[in-house]
Amino acid sequence: MAIRKFLGAALAVSALAAPAVAQISSEGGPIYIDSERTESLERERKVLLIGNVDIQQGTARLRADMVTIIFAGKPGGEAGSVGSGFGQIQTMVAEGNVFYVTPEMKAKGDRGVYDATVDTITMTGNVALMRERDVAEGETLKLEVGKRRTTLDGGTGRTRMVIESDKDSGGN
Fold this sequence. Notes:
- The protein is mainly beta.
- The protein is built from one helix and ten strands; from the N terminus they run αββββββββββ.
- The chain has one helix at 2-16, and strands spanning 31-34, 37-41, 46-57, 60-71, 89-101, 106-115, 120-131, 134-144, 149-153, 160-162.
- A hairpin with a 4-residue loop joins β2 (37-41) and β3 (46-57).
- The chain is elongated, with a radius of gyration of 18 Å.
- 25% of the residues are buried.
């Protein structure tokens, strides 16, 4: 079982070893993946990560029940294998119990989509964003990774926030 888990993670990492511009962290760097099962769909240029998926890059971490990584085609339409890579990561779709964590914040939702072309993570469905003791809730959270900009939308409802003042400041 441990060997199968290691091989699955190794296949996913080798697929990601191709030049990829995907960033779940504004720091960049290598992407490390751990999951219970990995499926490589070469003709569809997809890798499915299933079961307790944990993706880390720099100080950022993405966790979900399932993640689908979709690759852009290679120049000239070349077919690639897992060992040679699929090309650049185009999209990552995380579904079920999605958590995105950086040292500055924690976000959770039902679904998250990373779009490499605009370097943006969009989380939907009962979204919560936490920064230190402050909490914001809504339906859609848009994180522009490189720009370090966040936008929270209430959807059909409204956004809700709880901002706690610093107890130590005491007005000084």
